Amino acid sequence: MNLGRKKRARIVLDALSRVISRPETELHFSDEYELIVAVILSAQCTDARVNLVTPELFKVWSTFKSLSTAAPEDVAKVVASISYPNNKAKHLVGMAAKVMSDYHGKLPEDQISLMKLPGVGRKTAQVVSSVAFGDQNALPVDTHVYRVANRIGLVQQANTPLKVEMGLKRVIPQAEWGRAHHLLILHGRYTCTARNPDCDACVLRNVCKYYEALQRLPDPIDGLNPAKGKYYCATRQLYFDDPISRTDRAGISQIACPKCDSMNVYISKTGLTTKTVQDFRIE
After folding, report:
1. Among 100, 138, 232, 238, who pairs with 126 as Cys (CB 3.0-4.6 Å)?
2. Distance CA 266, CA 219 (A)
């Protein structure tokens, strides 16, 4: 569908709003202290895992003041099942100490001040300022937002989180940035997943550029014989085991035939094409 990005964004947000009833963070927290701790822990970790760990952490250290005097190694033991527990424990203690020393024990509300805290980057600062303080200038971009925005076509040639953020802010009304952030995250978490997106169940298929590209891939070939080779070149009609790689016109690396350089190659066992479409995963 040939749509401008603003029109595409409007359709996307309206469609996601119909199927996502609660576009909000899935982290469990009761105040600003618990929120920033949970968000720091959630980097490269699932919200579900964070929610399993934070009750014990908050039982031991319930305030910025108590956490600021904790030994990082003790915090690391409590968050051991979280990714990078040692680094995150140091960040948590450092963050709490700076809040106590520089901000009189009260979490700052603006993004610039938040980013001065250990363990708080641009995304974390925007999540906290948006969720805790209703910051209308925040549109945080995590791996889910990055992937979904690029796949759908809400942004173009946006190869960094900052470029995605700026691109989204150009096509989504500012009053909707906070809600859009949560809608795109939840869509990426449960439908437009990194490895196996559920395109058949997706309400955005008609406006998604990624899905459109998938539909242009060649149909499978029946009756191939894997005993003759792992791959089949439909151009030369020959089997082979050791492919080469070539870059297509879209700049995507594709499997190619070692005899003729053709990218018209299929997997013998399944009959499926080896061609792939551009994806936008942050590993």
Report:
1. 138
2. 10
Q: What percent of the chain has pLDDT over 90?
A: 94
Would you say 265 and 232 are in contact if contact means Cβ atoms under 8 Å apart? yes
pLDDT band at 283 (very low <50, low <70, confident <90, very high): low
Q: What is the 3-state secondary structure (H, E, C) of the chain?
A: CCCCHHHHHHHHHHHHHHHCCCCCCCCCCCCHHHHHHHHHHCCCCCHHHHHHHHHHHHHHCCCHHHHHCCCHHHHHHHCCCCCCHHHHHHHHHHHHHHHHHHCCCCCCCCHHHHCCCCCCCHHHHHHHHHHHHCCCCCCCCCHHHHHHHHHHCCCCCCCCHHHHHHHHHHHCCHHHHHHHHHHHHHHHHHCCCCCCCCHHHCCCHHHCHHHHHHHCCCCCCCCCCHHHCCEEECCCCEEECCCEEEECCCCCEEEECCCCCCCCEEECCCCCECCCCCCCCCC
